[in-house]
Amino acid sequence: MQVTFLGTSSGVPTRGRNVSAVALRLPQRSELWLFDCGEGTQHQFLRSELRVSQLSRIFITHMHGDHVFGLPGLLASLGLAGACSGIDLYGPDPLRDYLEGVLRTSSTRIGYPLRTHRVKQAAHSGAVLLEDDDLQVRCTPLTHRVPAFAYRVDQRPRPGRFDVEQARALGIPPGPIYAQLKAGQTVTLDDGRIINGAQLCGPPRPGSSVVYCTDTVFCEAAVELARGADLLIHESTFAHAEAEMAIARQHSTSTMAAQTALAAGVKQLMLTHLSPRYMPGNPVTPDDLLAEARAIFPNTELAKDFLTLELSPAEA
């Protein structure tokens, strides 16, 4: 999986940071998923190396403008391009009404399938939101001023590494049969021997996992969703000194994000959704927030627009 940050500011854009949007690229299936879609997200796509034509699913955390105002424009542009095969939208209950109202009153016609899915029930029940042969998506309610949800994407475990040398030593001729054996299937050779592919493969290898968590004050639900994840993308709207303001506005500080990462046992934390008050040159800067978080969770980095991370599954 490949994560690209398209917007890392909270509330309003700045010269260096657009409002919230994170793209998840799935190269093995030529597919792109988007998490939140703040104003100007389609412009960010144009400035990146991502192909918006691969966009197939959009996940919205909540209905505040800095997370959804870019959605009508992006969807309209996809329709004008004429190359969209369909979009699945996931989010809070008002998402469908919001889009229908904007598209209707602006006389915008969407000429491709647009399917909306409410996530509230899955979030509160713990049910799987989406799954197929490769991926599983779950969500959980967060603690914010309006209904908000965090999302987790898990790759399913992959087959163990195929021992080519052992296969050759057994006199198995190379060819399509190697693919069957690598998949763990049992095959019969031309000479009558029966070979169990599982015996030629190492232990299953875990897939990658990424969690997107914004906007929220510290909450146990986020910790549980992020448990053991490879990457936690967590909002860090305020510095620790402004914890009182963060609690009043139900946002997280840098230390709350780090505490979530530590309690969940994640491998890496990325801070995003930074308040414009921490622009470089101000008394407190993003580097100060990063230092606060690293004091609690050392493997923390600061997200910035167009930063791309490659998530490689760990070996067993």
Give a structural overview:
This protein is an alpha/beta fold and 316 residues long. Helices cover 27% and strands 24% of the residues. The chain is built from eleven helices and 16 strands. The strands form three sheets. It has a seven-stranded mixed sheet with strand order 6-5-4-3-2-1-16. α11 links the parallel β14 (268-272) and β15. The longest helix has 11 residues, at 71-81.
Strand content: 15-25%
Overall outline: globular
What is the CA-atom radius of gyration, in angstroms? 22 Å
Helical content (DSSP H or I, runs of 4+): 25-40%
Order of helices and strands: EEEHEHHEHEHEEEHHEEEHEHHEHEE
Number of helices: 11
Whole-number mean pLDDT: 93
Give the terminus-to-terminus CA distance.
18 Å
Biggest sheet descriptor: 7 strands, mixed
Strands, count: 16
Low-confidence sequence ranges: none
- Would you tell me the structural class of the helices and strands? alpha/beta
Widest β-sheet, arrangement of strands: 6-5-4-3-2-1-16
Summarize the structure.
This protein is of the alpha/beta class and 316 residues long.
Task: Summarize this structure as a short list of keywords or feature phrases.
single chain, 316 residues, 7-stranded mixed beta sheet, 16 strands, 27% helix, globular
